[in-house]
Please model this.
Amino acid sequence: MNFGPGHHRSRAFCPYWQAVEAKHDDDAVGLFDAHNELLTFVAETLEGDVEAILHEWVPDDDLRQQMRIEGQRLRHTIDRLTALGNRVNTYLRGELRDAQ
Model:
């Protein structure tokens, strides 16, 4: 979205809203970044890295271990999304360059 010269738009704090803004701004880089940030937060909560609140609520060791495993799986997803985002961005830069 273009707000004109000299106008600076702040970036949303929440990854969800960053993704919404990126979508409306046709910003593929921002969209992938927001996805990755949100999934990283989810992975951290499952692994117990963010204030470990979820792990405090669930005292069962087997369930906590399963949450850690799912968090690790999400990290692999994040890696794949990062690689895909890089490919998409490279493609789009080439398309834009070819269009000029």
The two ends are 20 Å apart (CA to CA). The CA atoms of residues 64 and 84 lie 30 Å apart. The chain has a mean pLDDT of 84.
